[in-house]
UniProtKB/TrEMBL annotation:
It holds the Pfam family HisG. Belongs to the ATP phosphoribosyltransferase family. Long subfamily. Keywords: Amino-acid biosynthesis, ATP-binding, Cytoplasm, Glycosyltransferase, Histidine biosynthesis, Magnesium, Metal-binding, Nucleotide-binding, Transferase. The keyword Glycosyltransferase applies. The lineage of its organism: Bacteria, Bacillati, Actinomycetota, Actinomycetes, Propionibacteriales. Residues 206-276 form the Histidine biosynthesis HisG C-terminal domain. Feedback inhibited by histidine. This is ATP phosphoribosyltransferase.
Length: 281
């Protein structure tokens, strides 16, 4: 049975469970359940703190997990990122009280508070900046006001927490994070894992694409399919009406409205866009 680690709380938990449910897996009914077996799909889910997931997967105790790229890197665990899952996006950034420092080299000899001490130490030591890293569990934005640090490094999503604390980001992002699928280093390919990864890949594609159908005069079909090349190749079917064809193609969801405008200008009519519920490519 494939053993899968899933975030039990925090910013990644709800979206991870939604993705697994969309991929056809049974999920826990109560937030108190620690483990559930999905016998129909031959997998077992372990609900764990996202920060701990890389540790279990790195040890090989669990076969695969969902966690944040930043948490994986901070753990130092022997686990590899397999693919980004497109949710839980954030930047990891330095911030200081507005107007006090302007670049990362100003940190020399200062105190930096963070929940991601490994990532921060590695970043600063690579740049030869000598700091004292103060490791805190959360609410890191308060550390400066409370006098335990001169700067912080923390997860930034909208930036509103920083603004409320009177802080501003400085320097380049330390890293860009999102939820990722992780496996133990050098894990063997198994058919159970392949099925799991293919299901998640199917969800990613179903989320990123829509199905587009339209009718167009035969003489314009080449130009139309150039706008909607699809992933493999568009389906072109004859219409009962002489001189017209129907085209069906997958189109990126974020481009769909623009593509429809361009198809309209080419003379396409009867354009319909529908969601894709699931797919295997
Ligand atoms: N707004 C956000 N706040 C915190 N983490 C976020 C946010 N958006 C995305 N993430 C990602 O979620 C992961 C952190 O989740 P985690 O559960 O450890 O922290 P949390 O959501 O702050 O929960 P808690 O503070 O209860 O531990 C990281 O990978 C981080 O990049
Ligand atoms: O840029 P924003 O959209 O404001 O989001 C980022 C903030 O959210 C998280 O804190 P959380 O609420 O999880 O509290 P914590 O610091 O105790 O983990 C994170 O640690 C930042 O503080
Ligand atoms: Mg938090």
């Amino acid at each position: 049975m494939l053993k899968i680690a899933v975030p039990n709380k925090g910013a990644l938990a709800e979206a991870a469970v939604a993705m697994l449910a969309e991929a056809g897996y049974h999920q826990r009914r109560s937030s108190r359940d620690l483990v559930i077996r999905d016998v129909d799909n031959d997998v077992e889910f372990f609900y764990l703190r996202p920060r701990d997931i890389a540790v279990y997967v790195g040890e090989g105790t669990l076969d695969v997990g969902i966690t944040g790229r930043d948490l994986l890197l901070d753990s130092g665990a022997d686990a590899d990122e397999v693919k980004g899952l497109g949710f839980g996006r954030s930047s990891f950034r330095f911030a200081v009280p507005a107007g006090t420092m302007s670049e990362v080299s100003d940190f020399d000899g200062r105190r930096i508070a963070t929940s991601y001490a490994t990532v921060v130490r590695a970043y600063l030591s690579e740049r030869g900046i000598d700091t004292h890293v103060v490791r805190l569990d959360g609410a890191v934005e308060s550390a400066i006001r409370l006098g335990v640090a001169d700067a912080i490094a923390d997860v930034v999503e909208t930036g509103s927490t920083l603004r409320q604390a009177g802080l501003e980001v400085i320097g380049d992002p330390i890293l860009e994070s999102e939820a990722v699928l992780i496996r133990p280093n050098n894990a063997n390919e198994t058919s159970a894992y392949d099925v799991f990864e293919r299901r998640l890949q199917g969800v990613l594609v179903a989320r990123a694409y829509v199905m587009m159908d339209y009718d167009i005069r035969t003489e314009h079909v080449e130009r139309a399919v150039a706008l909607t090349p699809g992933i493999e190749s568009p389906t072109v079917s004859p219409l009962h009406r002489e001189g017209w064809v129907a085209v069906r193609s997958m189109v990126r969801r974020d481009a769909a409205q623009k593509v429809m405008d361009e198809l309209w200008a080419l003379g396409a009519r009867g354009t319909l866009v529908t969601d894709i519920l699931a797919c295997r490519l």
